[in-house]
């Protein structure tokens, strides 16, 4: 091949690569503009969805909008909860100060409970220091602290969390049951102690009979030993879970484009 032909081929390859890069850059810019619009949308549900989008694509400047919302700019507590959830899932400890402010200052117990869990996700050591210096006086703060400890594999509060699943108000029962479903149920399933007839889903309240049965089954188990063993494999399990989540979101997005379906919302916490 002559040099001139080689130059032409090389130029064509470079142009193709530049076109791909420019296309991706333009797509990223459109995505970012869309999230900015979503976070300013008057519909709270749209603002929540915009926040959730940042979990997989954590843009620092957009995440700063979430911290501003947590610190008072966002008036809707359900949206603030979504902001807290997103920052916790992003996992960058630089956002711990905003989460700590939510624990100390947010008037909504629902948001504070979510903030305790987010704190545990962002920085377990700092979370434990915070828990030791911030007595959980309210029911919501206690539930938030218990679910955060359960997330970290500390099983000593399972009995109390089961009690909140029974005697809390409707929202508190739902949060307690969701935490138990996410982090206690897998341990019981691993040793064949989860009731096969239990017809429950994440985010749903548990019947009182099921709570009593779970209490009975937990009483005969070394839960902390089970949790300690499970944590040895947590990183591998988390990678699998993330990959499955990405595939599910891609499927839902494609279904939305093809059939006009709404994208499924992620679980609150």
* Morphology: globular
The CATH architecture of the domain at 37-139 comes to Alpha Horseshoe
Q: Residue-averaged pLDDT, rounded?
A: 85
CATH topology annotation of the domain at 37-139: Leucine-rich Repeat Variant
Unreliable stretches (pLDDT < 50, length at least 5) are 19-24
Strand content: under 5%
Biggest β-sheet description: none
The count of β-strands is: 0
Order of helices and strands: HHHHHHHHHHHHHH
CATH superfamily of the domain at 37-139: Leucine-rich Repeat Variant
Could you explain the architecture of this structure?
The chain has 269 residues and is mainly alpha-helical. It is globular. The chain has 14 helices and no strands. Among the domains are: 103 residues, Leucine-rich Repeat Variant, CATH 1.25.10.10; 85 residues. The longest helix has 38 residues.
Summarize the SSE layout with pairings.
Elements: H1 3-40, H2 44-56, H3 60-73, H4 77-90, H5 96-105, H6 109-122, H7 124-133, H8 139-151, H9 158-167, H10 170-183, H11 185-190, H12 208-219, H13 223-231, H14 234-259
Keywords:
75% helix, 269 residues, Leucine-rich Repeat Variant, 14 helices, mainly alpha, single chain
In short:
The protein is mainly alpha-helical and 269 residues long.
């Amino acid at each position: 091949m002559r040099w001139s032909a080689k130059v032409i081929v090389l130029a064509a390859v470079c142009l193709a690569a530049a076109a791909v890069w420019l296309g991706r850059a333009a797509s990223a810019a459109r995505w970012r503009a869309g999230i900015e619009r979503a976070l300013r949308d008057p519909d709270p549900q749209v603002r929540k969805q915009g926040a959730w989008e940042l979990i997989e694509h954590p843009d620092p400047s957009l995440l700063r909008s979430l911290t501003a919302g947590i610190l008072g700019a966002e008036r809707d507590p359900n949206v603030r909860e979504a902001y807290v959830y997103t920052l916790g899932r992003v996992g960058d400890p630089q956002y711990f100060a905003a989460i700590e402010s939510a624990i100390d200052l947010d008037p909504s117990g629902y948001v504070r409970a979510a903030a305790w869990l987010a704190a545990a996700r962002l920085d377990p050591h700092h979370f434990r220091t915070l828990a030791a210096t911030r007595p959980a006086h309210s029911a919501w703060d206690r539930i938030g602290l218990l679910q955060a400890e359960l997330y970290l594999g500390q099983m000593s509060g399972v009995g109390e969390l089961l009690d909140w699943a029974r005697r809390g108000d409707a929202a508190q029962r739902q949060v307690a049951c969701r935490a138990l479903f996410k982090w206690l149920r897998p341990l019981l399933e691993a040793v064949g102690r989860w009731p096969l007839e239990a017809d429950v889903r994440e985010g749903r309240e548990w019947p009182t009979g099921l709570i009593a049965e779970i209490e009975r089954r937990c009483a005969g188990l070394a839960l902390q030993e089970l949790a300690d063993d499970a944590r040895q494999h947590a990183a591998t399990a988390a990678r699998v879970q993330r990959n499955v989540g990405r595939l599910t979101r891609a499927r839902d997005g494609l279904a939305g484009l093809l059939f006009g379906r709404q994208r499924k919302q992620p679980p609150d916490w």
